[in-house]
Write a structure and sequence with these properties.
Layout: H1 6-12, H2 14-22, E1 24-28, H3 32-44, E2 48-52, H4 77-88, E3 93-97, E4 116-119, H5 124-137, E5 141-144, E6 156-160, H6 168-179, E7 186-190, H7 232-248
Parallel strand pairs: 1-2, 1-4, 2-3, 4-5, 5-7
Antiparallel strand pairs: 6-7
Length: about 260
């Protein structure tokens, strides 16, 4: 009988759909990139998805985040995303973890239980901690580099971190990972030079923060409030999800520690 995954099964086959139904994926960062990544994983039939983010939906998220609407402003991103997944696939197992992943909280997360990890966080400290721990446990991971301050959604590429160029975040990651002895990491990145955001005091969150009360990491703490849009982060997230799906159904998924 047809179901919500019938069209995907026509493309991937039932054996691969069973692999996806049995897979457990963790997505760190449920924002402009991570939200679309989760959406695609859920709609493709991944059976268990764990969501990691401590942030609430802000009014300024409505321009790009799939879970952001007027009704969800102020709610926790993980809670809203969990309910969205359940509306797509009631049989999915969904974990919503209100946590800002980093060196201080990493011990509370057992990465070894996952078949794949998608990194969509936007801080370098968190990315490095996540990649290093995934590498140590042999868990495949894909990491998204900078998607803010860009306008060309067609410029994204998938590559090993040590084959990237132009992207400032990728440059720092290359250096830091090499210093840590990690020789390979699959990333989604863009060679498009980042634009400089317009500094409009009337529009800037730096002067008129609209984050819900209780948000610890609001825009006032940023050195620069990044510009973004509806299409660039979305494309990066969908590319990430596609890579996760392709690796999960591969005959022999390539573990991080085996790459290079």
């Amino acid at each position: 009988m047809p179901n919500q995954f019938s069209r995907t099964a026509l493309q991937l086959g039932n054996d691969n759909m069973n692999k996806l139904h049995k897979a457990r994926v963790a997505v760190f960062g449920i924002g402009g990139v991570g939200g679309y990544c989760v959406e695609a994983l859920a709609r493709t039939g991944v059976g268990a998805i764990d969501l990691f983010d401590d942030d609430r939906i802000c009014l300024t998220n409505l321009n790009r985040q799939i879970i952001a609407t007027q009704k969800t402003v102020g709610l926790y991103k993980t809670d809203v995303m969990r309910e969205r997944i359940r509306e797509i696939n009631p049989n999915a197992e969904v974990g919503a973890h209100r946590i800002f992943y980093g060196p201080d909280t990493a011990d509370a997360v057992d990465l070894s239980v996952y078949d794949y990890i998608a990194d969509a966080v936007d801080t370098m400290t968190a990315k490095l901690e996540l990649v290093c721990r995934a590498n140590a446990r042999g868990v495949p991971i894909i990491s998204c580099m900078g998607a803010a301050n860009k306008l060309d959604a067609s410029a994204f590429e998938v590559a090993d971190i040590h084959e990237t160029s132009v992207c400032p975040m990728a440059r720092i990651m290359r250096k830091e990972l090499r210093n840590r002895g990690i020789e390979a990491l699959k990333v989604v990145y863009s060679k498009e030079p980042a634009m400089t955001p317009f500094e409009d005091a009337a529009e800037s969150c730096r002067y008129h923060c609209v984050c819900p009360p209780g948000v610890a990491r609001n825009c006032l703490r940023r050195r620069q409030v990044p510009a973004s849009n509806a299409f660039v982060p979305a494309v990066a997230g969908l590319i990430m999800a596609g890579e996760v799906i392709r690796d999960l159904i591969a005959e022999r998924p390539v573990r991080v520690a085996e790459r290079g």
